[in-house]
Amino acid sequence: MQANFLDLLEFLKPLGEEDYFKASNLEDIFRTKIAKSQATGKDGVRIDRFLANLEEEAKLIERKVKAGTYAFTNYKERLILRGSERVPRQISIPTVRDRLTLRALCQILHTFEPKTIGSPPHALVSGVVKSIRAGDQSQNSFVRIDVKNFFPSISHSILKRELLHFKFSKQTIELLAKAFSTATGDTDAIPLRGVPQGLSISGALSALYMLRFDNRRLSEGRIYFRYVDDILLVCKSSQADDLLKSISRTLASRGLIAHAKGVAGKTEISPVAHGVDFLGYRICVDKVSIRASSFRRMYKNVLKVITDFRYRRDVKRMIFRLNLKITGCIVDGKRRGWMMFFSHTEDVNQLAQLDQFLTNQVKRVGLPAENAHLIKRFVKSYHEIRYNLAQSTYIPNFDNFDIDQKADVVSAMSGKDLSAVLAMDILAIESEFSRYISREISDLEKDVGNPS
Question: In the prediction, which pLDDT does 452 show?
Fold first, then answer.
């Protein structure tokens, strides 16, 4: 009885930072956060191989972190094209072992400084709408500021100073410093600036870097919102130019350079009555709608799936992929997809236009009439997400799919007969389902694009 009571006390005791690197916690992180990933780092070790040695790998990480000898492997480089006139975005892909270590660090950052989680875009949009509708629309202006090359510009010396200010342990700070000082690609040079994009800690570190900057604006009584590198303030129109200059100077003191005023879609001053683009939305006093560029993007997303059907003529695959584009989904407890992101629009007419476009395109490619009714609708998806998501069967929640539903997805995506899929081993069905869903989820994230 005494032993059980002591075990309970140990369980209830708050975790210290060092506890996040215990082998048992690392194994839990791997199974819940990493096991479904397919990415490999520069060492070429795949998830299945790492899983076969998980216990030993977790103990190795625990031992090396405790001894202060853990070292990260150079991140594998992946370049994301952003158009002919823009430099590609560099994405850093860690090894599986490093990914596990980084996830533990991310847990520490989120637990000991919850504001590093950041506010979701829809909450910020709602905050902007509430502020402008409650204020003086005739006398106020938006000041929108976009930071150039935000992640690559973050100063390591300032970031270390912020980590000390928020009183993270020496072990955590040293390990984080190793993580953001590890190079991407084949270079041996140790970077002095920049947080690699693509790591689980990237967003948390960028939030920590800006946290005192944010707090200062709010303590001044400013109507202030920030999402990563996109800053929006509301102020008296007569004060807007001075405020822009002041904020730009303060950013520069942290090594961050704002785009010059007047750069299209970047830094601007706009009367509240004229509205502003922010986080993929067009925010006006009387209506919140989807920004024109974000709206056009969904037309292109729909056309990609329909074009694929023209060549494959695979009805089941097309319907599954198209419906996923329309409704989005829930996976790993998170909402994913274009409609999920833009569910706070107040302009349902835009969604009705997409539905009409979809109907016309489906007719043009000759989808059999008996299948046309299986195509879902943007307007219906919007209402389900806004008012019925917890109970909805219209929006797929892949976390709740049973083996038969997973087999149906595998059949749709692979082109295999459903009976052949059901004859497969259950673990094989699970693996194939995870692979297809991971790929489609990646496409859903691209559908949203850069919301800033």
Answer: 65
